[in-house]
Amino acid sequence: MKRPNGFTLIELMIVVVIVAILAAVAVPSYQQYVQKARRTEAMSAILSAVTQQEKYFLSNNSYAANNAVLGVGATTGSGDYTLSVSATNIAAIATGKQTSDTQCRQFVYVLETSRMWSETAAGITNPTPDPCWQ
User: Fold this and answer.
1) Residue 82 lies in a domain
2) Which of 104, 70, 105, 61 is nearest to 90 (CA)?
3) Could you tell me the sign of the dihedral formed by the alpha carbons of 19, 20, 22, 26, in that order?
4) 17 and 9 in contact (C-beta within 8 Å)?
5) From residue 29, how far is each of 22, 32, 35, 78, 115 by CA, in Å?
């Protein structure tokens, strides 16, 4: 007697179910890591703009009023946050896919007090230390 080669339909279906379960677990975790990476990029952009503001302040004895005066781009490198510069603070506001981030949608650095806070889906938070800035 010759034994048939290959896989049965049941064996293939079991493999498909296992792969689907693994994907259901892995995809949300991956998306959280991507959101955290985008947050880090926003914080880095803000801190870079803060450095530029301090340099501007040393030269002009006042803070720059907007992005153009400071020479800072309007978005982060990936475009997931919009940067807003004023004479009192620097903010990064989530745009595009990053608006689905329910924990940290907006980062703000207040220049005169060096205070950092963020806005979540539930509203503005100002704990010390702010969990979004860690």
Assistant:
1) yes
2) 70
3) positive
4) no
5) 11, 5, 10, 20, 31
CATH code for position 21 = 3.30.700
Q: Which domain holds residue 86?
A: 9-133
Q: Is residue 90 one of the residues assigned to a domain?
A: yes
Q: Which of 61, 109, 58, 65 is nearest to 87 (CA)?
A: 65
**Look-up of token digits 């990936």:** 78
Query: What CA–CA distance (Å, rounded) separates 79 from 74?
Result: 9
Count the domains in the chain.
Answer: 1
Q: pTM, whole model, 2 decimals?
A: 0.74
CA–CA dist 119, 106 (Å, integer): 5
* Per-residue pLDDT tens digits for 113-131: 777 767 665 555 554 556 6
Measured CA to CA in angstroms, residue 19 lies from 9, 24, 34, 89, 116 at distances of 15, 9, 22, 48, 43
